[in-house]
Give the backbone structure.
Amino acid sequence: MNRNQINELNMYDVVEQLLNANTAIWVANVAVNATFTTFTSHVNAINANDTVQKTSSIGTTQSKENARQAMTTAAVATLNAGKAYASATSNAILFDVMSITKSEITRAADTDADDICQNIHDALQPYIANTTAYGATAASLTNLQTLINTYSSFIGKPALQKSIVSNATLSLAQHFTAANALLKNQLDPLMAQYQNTNPGFYNQYQSVRVINDIGHRHTVTLTGFVYDTRGHALTGAEVELSGLATHSKTTNATGEYRFTRLQTGTYTLTVSAGGLQTQTRSFSVIKNETIHNDFTLLPA
């Protein structure tokens, strides 16, 4: 994002926070409700595209190289064990497969390296129950397969990532244009009806609709996981944020919640789920950072 977009997004955040904190005033108004829902969808899309835009293909390339190195190391350990076992049992066919060298794997083309390692894995699979003394176990073979799969998933990703980032930049501009038009042409006029019925709310709205040139994004992130007493992730737990900002989230399939782009200040997290005790935790954030708070909810 450029500087202007950063400043616009900060303004969107404050507008969103104000309306979320005052839903009782406008929630019954169908037009305001629909407009605000569309507006928040554009803000969410901007956040998603911004994350993609900042993803570098260099990072993807490095991840692929790390994955290849890990796969190669595990494959070499497997083929050494397999070669020793094949020699001890006079298994000429297995010995031939296990005679691959580390340099052959490291010098192989991207699309060939995982095939070589897969052949090593598959050749030793029928004998794995007998190779523990030689340094290969069912667990190490499973680990090798996982590393092969991980490496295979990276093949071709750097070039693809560059294309994705380019498309995200275009989409980002489109969502900013749509969000600005929505504020100017729909939400601003709709707020005018509260000038007499709720002047305090109306004046607050007018004050937060100003774009301030601060040139940077709020980068405080609050995140964590919610578990039950058995350590199982709680999906759909309610996490309420209050204090300098007011938001609510529900935990995902892994029990995770995340609040992003917050300012430094004091916050309170309240976590609740059906049949379990509600927990509340307050804390202060004095610098831009990611704060982790995990919760374990006790039975009610």
